[in-house]
Write a structure and sequence with these properties.
Order of helices and strands: EHEHEHHEEEHEHHEHHHEEEEEEEEEEEE
Largest sheet: 9 strands, antiparallel
Number of helices: 10
Helix content: 10-25%
Number of strands: 20
CATH class of the domain at 3-212: Alpha Beta
Distance between the termini: 49 Å
CATH topology of the domain at 3-212: Rossmann fold
Oligomer: single chain
Structural class: alpha+beta
Shape: globular
Radius of gyration: 25 Å
């Protein structure tokens, strides 16, 4: 194959990863050109991050000049606003937790940007993602985990189609981050020492509530702490626990809550066997799966009482004690919070950290629980609607009634979790071997077979 006749457009961001991707492709003999995309205008009053696109463009242009490749600029801010930012606002307004980076890759980098690159004559678009691409004869293209277990970025590409992957290249997927830095330094690329970008894709590091308040109305509401007594009295919670216990195979034990572990590294599997499912699932009904995947809903009513205080016996009002919970603070809008969130609550007086366990945008309430092992943080099962299920290789799609064992993660950097996927007419159900922390509607659940990412879907509730 004469690589000099293959034209590759590199999405050059000004960072070290895309810079090395462009450099390696040039070294391999491809006909390479770079294109920098601007994805927002601060004048639109839409986004205000720390990441200055003008500086990134300047560095990207220096890199292109150093490598010796043509450099182009494209403004995709209109499409980015419509297809990514507006989606974010809409999802948060509904009390869901979207992932803009996943949408940016599906809608912008490998769609809007790809279409522009093709008009410039490109055969492929290359990016600096840490993942590997493999062509399977007669079955299309698969995506494999990156070689660096601490930088694997397959999660962000979980919604790509075969058509998109057929035009995609990932030149640094076989490298570790230190190796990429070394190559950049040896090649004297201007981005060699540049820090990695953080925050929202192409926006930068922003304060999320401040960002959302640009379009979502701020309305004060109650922060309610939920006590253990609530679960002892909740019908659905008790049914779920009893059902899970009844499904256990002989000799298997059931942990009820998540054992806390900071997600500092992505733990790849290296092809290790999944192990046996702890549950007996042959006779489980679709209705039971629906109930197992239903999150606990919270409704705690607080009554007031009057009392007299101080030497002058001034008449005051307070809430009566409630065994199920108490009001512990105020917030500025339930849509600004997400399940599992710890920071920004302003709730003190607790020995252990306090986390968001649920949000109710209709009632404008957020519910919190104390401690990493709070019952409200843990769930075993989630559901994905049929129209939200995406298979990277369509021939791998599951049929109703089928079940398979895969490893799954529900957010970037989460260690892969063993689970059983059960396909039914009403959708795909994912039942984990162990409870999962902070499952939130709107997140993407992504499943893997060994090191291959097979598919993904939006968590429904």
């Amino acid at each position: 194959m004469d690589k000099s006749k293959i034209k590759v457009c590199v999405g050059l961001s000004g960072g070290v990863d895309s810079s090395v991707a462009a450099y390696l492709l040039k070294q391999e003999g491809y006909d390479v050109f770079a294109m920098f995309m601007q994805n927002w205008h601060e004048a639109d009053a839409t986004l205000h991050g720390d990441c200055e696109w003008e500086e990134d463009r300047y560095v990207a242009e220096l890199v292109a000049r150093k490598i010796g490749i043509p450099f182009y600029f494209v403004d995709l801010s209109g499409q980015y606003r419509e297809r990514v930012v507006d989606y974010m606002f809409d999802e948060y307004a509904k009390g869901r937790t979207p992932n803009p980076d996943v949408l940016c890759n599906r809608e912008i980098k490998f769609d809007a940007f790809l279409q522009v690159a093709l008009k410039y004559g490109a055969d492929y678009v290359a990016t600096g993602h840490y993942c590997r691409r493999e062509e399977i004869p007669g079955q299309g293209v698969s995506i494999l985990e990156g070689a660096d277990p601490n930088k694997d970025q397959t999660y962000f590409l979980c919604q790509l189609s075969q058509e998109q992957l057929s035009k995609a290249l990932f030149p640094i997927g076989h490298l570790t981050k230190p190796e990429v830095r070394r190559i950049a330094k040896e090649a004297e690329l201007p981005s060699a020492e540049k820090k990695d970008s953080q925050g929202i894709c192409f926006v930068g590091k922003v304060d999320l509530p401040t960002f959302l308040k640009q379009k979502l109305t701020s309305v004060e509401g109650d922060i309610v702490e939920v006590f253990d007594a609530y679960y002892a009295a909740d019908e659905l919670y008790n049914w779920q626990q009893e059902k899970l216990s009844s499904m256990l195979k002989p000799g298997k034990a059931l942990d009820r809550t998540v054992h806390y572990a900071p997600e500092e590294k992505i733990l790849t599997t290296d092809g290790a066997p999944l192990g046996e499912c702890p549950f007996e699932l042959q006779d489980i009904s679709e209705e039971d799966l629906k109930r197992l995947a239903t999150p606990i809903s919270y409704k705690i009513d607080f009554e007031t009482e009057t009392y007299r205080s101080g030497k002058k016996h001034i008449k005051k009002t307070r809430y009566k004690e409630n065994p199920f919970g108490r009001i512990v603070g105020r917030h500025e809008g339930a849509q600004f919070y997400t399940i599992g969130q710890r920071k920004g609550l302003g709730v003190g007086g607790h020995a252990n950290p306090v986390f968001v366990i649920a949000t109710d945008t209709a009632a404008n309430r957020i519910y919190v629980g104390e401690g990493h092992d709070h019952k409200g943080l843990s769930r075993f099962c989630l559901a994905i609607r049929p129209d939200e299920i995406h298979w990277i290789r369509p021939e791998m799609a599951m049929r109703p009634g089928e079940q398979r064992r895969y490893r799954v993660r529900i957010r970037y950097r989460q260690p892969l979790q063993s689970a059983t996927l059960l396909m039914r007419e009403s959708g795909l159900y994912i039942l984990f071997d162990a409870p999962q922390r902070g499952i939130s509607p709107g997140q993407f659940a992504v499943w893997y077979d060994g090191q291959e990412m097979l598919g993904s879907g939006v968590i429904g509730q």
